[in-house]
Design goal:
The complex is a heterodimer. Chain A is an all-beta fold. In chain A, about 0% of the residues lie in helices and about 50% in strands. Classes of the chains: A mainly beta, B mainly beta.
Chain lengths: ~110, ~120
């Protein structure tokens, strides 16, 4: 099975900061990588699909990049409403999906 | 309205089974699969498995093989997830999500399953 290593596990940043989260796959997954945002008590929300495509309606301050084994998720200017836990998720053609461990983002 | 509506909270004893439903509306049910994801209290997301609503094909997480069964009823556009031989560490919120080939943009509201003696 493919393992996903997400870092950091937690992050504290100020409003307006640029925030970066990384996700590493245990083997080449091409661009089969999604990013989700989850707020307490809510279902996850898809932000980025296929590594770099912004889901409809998601603010453009969110972006994703990478391919192969190394991926990056970026918030260009942190807003108070971005406080949440973020997860990467890989998928293959079985289909089988694996989530990263999550990154809890807090306001400094 | 495009939505997935899940059944209500459950409390089960260890060793029992639970069956959670997920009713789809507002889209062609058989055009997508359904994934099931769970989240233990204070923990991360765990993918449990996937079922094709078109032909019933399934793929389960290795960890749950033998204890989980996913089914669909196309006449009512409903997906089901049954988990057997429940243990305390199965206590979690269980989500269904529409599997769209890559990510899942449509999720159910979640169903809390508590396993306690």
């Amino acid at each position: 099975d493919i393992q996903m290593t997400q870092s950091p596990s937690s992050l504290s940043a100020s409003v307006g900061d640029r925030v970066t989260i990384t996700c590493q796959a245990s083997q080449d997954i091409s661009n089969y990588l999604n990013w989700y945002q989850q707020k307490p008590g809510k279902a996850p929300k898809l932000l980025i699909y296929d590594a770099s495509n912004l889901e409809t309606g998601v603010p453009s301050r969110f972006s994703g990049s990478g391919s192969g084994t190394d991926f990056t998720f970026t918030i260009s200017s942190l807003q108070p409403e971005d406080i949440a836990t973020y997860y990467c998720q890989q998928y293959d053609n079985l289909p089988q999906y694996t989530f990263g461990q999550g990154t809890k983002l807090e306001i400094k | 309205q495009v939505q997935l509506v899940q059944s209500g909270a459950e409390v089960k004893k260890p060793g029992a089974s639970v069956k959670v439903s997920c009713k789809a509306s507002g889209y062609t049910f058989t055009s997508y699969g359904i994934s099931w994801v769970r989240q233990a209290p204070g923990q991360g997301l765990e993918w449990m498995g996937w079922i094709s609503a078109y032909n019933g094909n399934t793929n389960y997480a290795q960890k749950l093989q033998g204890r989980v069964t996913m089914t669909t009823d196309t006449s009512t556009s409903t997906a089901y997830m049954e988990l057997r031989s429940l243990r305390s560490d199965d206590t979690a919120v269980y989500y269904c999500a529409r599997a769209e080939g890559s990510g899942s943009s449509l999720w159910g509201q979640g169903t809390m399953v508590t396993v306690s003696s």
